[in-house]
């Protein structure tokens, strides 16, 4: 097995929304804001090469929305999905599986692209199976008013219409599915959105957790640093607390989807709770 960080692009969101009830005087120390109170964020995917399978975890915002839409999110930087795949010798056609942690636009927008030949939309990864779960699919396709602007039908309805949509079983006991069809464990969490899925990958003797929107950046590690976007913030506190305790106990390495400058991190238990220990790049830990 080999893992590759895939930079799909960068954007900005309001810092206050990203840190909920935490005062700006505190969160800006780790995530400084611009003149519009926006902070810089990544949309980092993870590519798993495992035998004949090439599994992509999340796929960024895509490029099919209008200039007006993208203008809300201040896209910046030179990264894009295709260039990042090509850096490791892969193309979109090589991807066999696309695992979507959840269906918010910044995580799944790249799953579908414009069909320039026939009009409408088509799958970006034509040879891939797409993976979600039935509970979250129901949640996303019949969205509540709070999340409606994040669940864009053009980002995922074509997946079902294509016949390439597959559902992962939600565990009936506990919140961890062991040995999923993708070959890694999956942690299910419900505070941010219903049935978000976090991959837990055994790699070179370590457990790498793709933290998605449970812990968006290194600045979000402290327990009470919960995003204003979360639909059930008190549940996030509960889920995050249990996760952080396990992370210390089993020495997890966090893979940050949204931190533009810190790819990986570890945490440690202190008198002030579980806090960030070290941050490092993927190459520093696992080589190129």
Question: Could you characterize what this model shows?
Answer:
- There is one protein chain.
- By secondary structure, this protein is α/β, with parallel strands linked by helices.
- It has one domain (2-286): Metallo-beta-lactamase, Chain A (4-Layer Sandwich).
- 22% of the residues lie in helices and 30% in strands.
- The protein has helices spanning 15-19, 24-27, 67-71, 81-87, 105-108, 134-141, 157-162, 233-250, 282-286, and strands at residues 2-14, 38-50, 53-57, 97-99, 112-114, 121-123, 129-132, 165-167, 176-177, 185-189, 196-203, 206-210, 253-255, 264-270, 273-280.
- Strands 9-10-11-12-13-14-15 form a 7-stranded mixed β-sheet. A 6-stranded mixed β-sheet has the order 1-2-3-4-7-8. A two-stranded antiparallel ribbon has the order 5-6.
- Strand 2 (38-50) and strand 3 (53-57) form a beta hairpin.
- The longest helix has 18 residues, at 233-250.
- The chain is globular, with a radius of gyration of 18 Å.
- The two termini are 13 Å apart.
- One of its GO terms (molecular function) is hydrolase activity.
- Keywords: Hydrolase, Metal-binding, Zinc.
- This is MBL fold metallo-hydrolase.
- Residues 42-258 form the Metallo-beta-lactamase domain.
- Belongs to the metallo-beta-lactamase superfamily.
